[in-house]
Write a structure and sequence with these properties.
It contains no helices and eleven strands. By secondary structure, it is mainly β. Strands 2, 4, 5, 6, 9, 10 and 11 form a seven-stranded mixed beta sheet that branches. It has a four-stranded antiparallel beta sheet with strand order 1-3-8-7, with no helix packed on it. The radius of gyration is 13 Å and the shape is globular. It starts with a strand and ends with a strand. The mean pLDDT is 94.
Length: 125
């Protein structure tokens, strides 16, 4: 079985930083897309960043380019989201998710991701 567990959320002042972690287990880590999504109250989940674990190819939503960075640690089977210069608009519950079929480039729609973590709350004030 596949499990994804996020951690690292919390409350931070505007301009501050947080690093989210997603620990994955239950499947062969390499060769899949892992993504960070976020959902604020009243809004649909939106993609934040993705990484194809096989080669490390990444994607960032325009809203977070230059402020967020996705990375991975293949030995630890984990991905991270470094969030800098946080703004109140970044307040959301952040989810880690896995797509099981894409290669090279990761899909951006939430429906393409079949496994999800429980989410971790990020609040920026």
């Amino acid at each position: 079985h596949v499990q994804l567990v996020e951690s690292g959320g919390g409350s931070v002042q505007t301009g501050g930083s947080l690093r989210l972690s997603c620990q994955v287990s239950g499947y062969l880590y390499g060769g899949n897309c892992l993504g960070w999504f976020r959902q604020a109250p009243g809004k649909e989940r939106e993609v934040v960043a993705t990484v194809y674990t096989g080669i490390g190819n990444t994607y960032y939503a325009d809203s977070v380019k230059g402020h967020f960075a996705i990375s991975q640690d293949t030995d630890k089977k984990a991905i991270y989201l470094q969030m800098n210069s946080l703004e109140p608009d970044d307040t959301a519950k952040y989810y880690c998710a896995r797509n099981s079929y894409a290669t090279g480039s990761c899909p951006l729609g939430q429906s393409s991701y079949d496994y999800w973590g429980q989410g971790t709350q990020v609040t920026v004030s």
